[in-house]
Amino acid sequence: MTDTCPPNCAHCAENPDHQSAHQAVVEALQVMGAHPEASEDEIVQLLQARGYSAIVAEKLNAFVPSALSWPLLKRLGVEGFVGHFIAFDDNDQEVQIPVSSQHYFTAALMLAYNTLEDGWSEELPHSTFVSVTQKSPEMNAANKVLNQGGSLEGGTIGPLQLFRLSASEVLGQASS
Q: What does the H/E/C string look like for 39-91?
């Protein structure tokens, strides 16, 4: 994948400020909410049609559902969340990427926490929250446990593995 936007593009800044990341998350939620049955490829294409680069669209596609699921999983009894994602380098070696380094994830996480505390909003309506969290691998795993009569109480969520982005793309080191 290559980043096709100019270096000063607000959508594609390597280190977006929180406001830019928040706006990108809100737009991703609008796309995901309007197309709840869309595949990952379709979501990425729809985000690109809104002006996001392929890399940023992939990040939003991966991080927004996962980030939205964390506060809900916490309320369901999960106690631990690892502080990193796993992506793979050019030699297929695992690279641990700190969650805190990914502004789209942290912006979505903050929006989810605030929404669960303060209530549904135009930015994050209940129907969108439900459909987007159901796309998260974490929520999918939790639902399997719950559907088998298990409990999430005291559980820990392992790292999200990113297969559609390389470590260099996640870290903003991909060639443009």
A: CHHHHHHHHHHCCCCHHHHHHHHHHHHHHHHHHHHHHCCCCEECCEEEEECCC
Angle at which helices 40-49 and 54-75 pack, to 10 degrees?
Answer: 120
In angstroms, the CA 167 to CA 58 distance is 13
Lowest mean pLDDT among 6-15, 32-41, 118-127: 6-15
Closest of 15, 28, 96 to residue 61, by C-alpha: 28
Identify residue 36 by its one-letter amino acid code: P
pLDDT digits (tens, 9 = 90+) for 48-77: 999 999 999 999 999 999 999 999 999 999
User: What is the residue extent of each domain of the chain?
Assistant: 18-170
- From the list 30, 20, 65, the residue with the least C-alpha distance to 50 is 30
62 to 16, 39, 45, 54, 163: CA distances (angstroms): 17, 12, 14, 12, 10
**Radius of gyration (C-alpha) of the chain in whole angstroms:** 16
Can you tell me the distance from the alpha carbon of 72 to that of 70, in angstroms, rounded to the nearest whole number? 5
Give the HSE-up count for residue 114: Cα atoms under 13 Å, Cβ half-sphere. 11
Task: Give dist(CA 88, CA 150) in Å, integer.
Answer: 32
Closest CA to 133 of 159, 111, 101: 111
